Amino acid sequence: MGLRMSYVNYKGLVIREVNTGEADKIITVLTAEEGKISIAAKNARRAKSSLSAGSQLFAYSEYMLFKGKELYNMSSCQVIEPNYEIRNDIEKLTYCSHILELISDNVQEGEPSEEVLRLLLNTLYVISKTNRPLKLITVVFELRLMSLLGYEPHVISCVNCGKAQDESMYFDFDSSGLVCKDCLNRKSRSIALLPGTVKALKYIVFISPQKLFNFSLSQEAIEELGQISKRYIKEHIGKEYRKLDYLKQLKLE
């Protein structure tokens, strides 16, 4: 008598895909319950496969799976949001590929990731469905993700004296937060900030997920946020992400 297969259902978004065999795929999916999971999708690269659409990068789907020796195996899938707009725009595709790389590197298998999945879904929605500045959306995502991963910067007040103000503030990488002009160590690694950048940092770290992208910012402040985020990620994760360099080659950034 054969063993009865046990099926599980997950909703998740494809953050990585690898072609295997003649027509198969192994995809990595971000789920709320289990963080990253790896799924074998047999014949998913065949045009008429019922698993094809749900095995595409950026697709958000509901999956019916059964557990194999090493991986989940996909039995069926129902696409909820394909995010076609991202794949058809080189600038959006590059930004979103960078976002997925950050997720793939820093979310673990078996680690509940409901807030990270919500952040990712909201970010991709804003990128695909609106005309808001892609660099701003991406930097907001990066800084919020760092907070969710346990690297929340101290932005409510000066790290040293507790002074809460928006004027004459610096982001100090040695202290992982804001420092006022009076407390600034001239030898520290810091960036002088516009008042708008300080307000944006506080907003990004503390606002509810539903309102995260509901603000605008000057181009100069966006550039400052970008400098902070890039260095902050390298400081705490130990990796310099380079996918966005491609946009400079295309002169899109």
From TrEMBL:
Domain of life where this protein originates: Bacteria
DNA replication/recombination mediator RecO N-terminal domain span: 5-82
One GO term of the biological process aspect: DNA recombination
Swiss-Prot/TrEMBL keywords: DNA damage, DNA recombination, DNA repair
One Pfam family recorded for the sequence: RecO_C
Gene3D superfamilies per the UniProt record, alphabetical: Nucleic acid-binding proteins, Recombination protein O, C-terminal domain
Coiled-coil segments: none
Classification via InterPro entries: ARFGAP/RecO, DNA_rep/recomb_RecO_N, NA-bd_OB-fold, RecO, RecO_C
CC per GO annotation: bacterial nucleoid
Function recorded in the entry: Involved in DNA repair and RecF pathway recombination.
Family according to the record: Belongs to the RecO family.
Protein name, UniProt field: DNA repair protein RecO
